[in-house]
C-alpha cells in the first residue's frame, strides 16, 4: 500500500484531506471556546467604571455586565420609595428600601432603582436625600416579578421582588434593567448621606462579588465534537479511497497473472497441435512421393546388422 500512497495523486489527496481536517479542527476549537462563558475576573468587576459607559438602559443585562462596581450621579425622584420583602440582614427578615435615581448622562433621563438600605419595619425608614448624589455601588440584574404582586400599606408600597418590569409600571418612567446596591453615597458637598451616614435609620446593604462560576453551552460542545468527527472522517475517506485503489490494483495484477498463465497454456497446446499436424502432413507427402508407407518400410541400411557369409572357400573344397 505504501507504493500506492506515494503516487502523486494520493499525496495531493492526503494534503487536501489534512487541510480540510485542519479547518474542521479550528471550527471545533472555535465552538469549544464559545461553549465556556466565564464571568469577568474580580480585578475587572471590582474596579469602578461609570454606569453610562458600562451599561445602557432598556437592554437585557448579560452576565459579563452584571456584578460590576459602577459610579453614577443623579437625583432621587420624590415619592418613588418602595419596600422589597422579604430580605435578610444578619439572619433577620426585613425590607429593602428602594428609590428611583434619575441618572445624570443617561440617554433619555432614565432612572435606575437604588437600594438605599435595609429596615426591619416599613415604619422605620429615612427619606431619600435631596439634591445631586454621587454613588458607588454594585450593578446587579433585575429580578423577575413575584406571584405576590404589589401590596399597598399605610407606610408605602411593598413588592415581593425587585423587578424592573413592575417598577417601570409603578413609576411610569424609563428605567435601566437592573439596580444598584451602593457602598457609599455622598452629596455634592462631599458629605456622606444614606444608610452609611451617622444617625440613619437604615442599615447599609453590601452585596459582595458573585461566585465565579464558568457555565458551559452544551450545544456548542456538541458542535465541537461534530467538527472533530468530521476532521477524522476526512482522513478516513482518504485512507479508504487509497485502500480501494490498492486492492483494485492487486486484483488487476492477479487477473493479469491468471490470464497470462491461461494464455501460455493455451498457446503451448495450440503450438503442439500445429506441430503434430505439420508432422502428419509431412509424412503423407513423403509417402506419396516415394510410394511407400513409412509405417511398413524396412529400417534404413545403416541400421541393419551384417549377416555372416554361408559360402565355402575354394581351398576347403579341394580338400
UniProtKB/TrEMBL annotation:
Query: What does the similarity note say?
Result: Belongs to the SURF1 family.
Instruction: Give a yes or no for keyword Transmembrane helix in this entry.
Output: yes
Q: InterPro entries attached here?
A: Surf1/Shy1
Membrane-protein topology: Multi-pass membrane protein
Any stretches that span the bilayer, and where are they? 218-239
Read off the Pfam families from this record: SURF1
Q: Please state where this protein is localized.
A: Cell membrane
Q: What is this protein called?
A: SURF1-like protein
| Organism of this sequence | Citricoccus nitrophenolicus
Q: Which UniProt keywords apply?
A: Cell membrane, Membrane, Transmembrane, Transmembrane helix
The yes or no answer to whether the keyword Transmembrane is present is: yes
Primary site of residence: membrane
- Low complexity composition-biased segments: 302-319
Renumbered to this chain, region (Disordered) spans 289-319
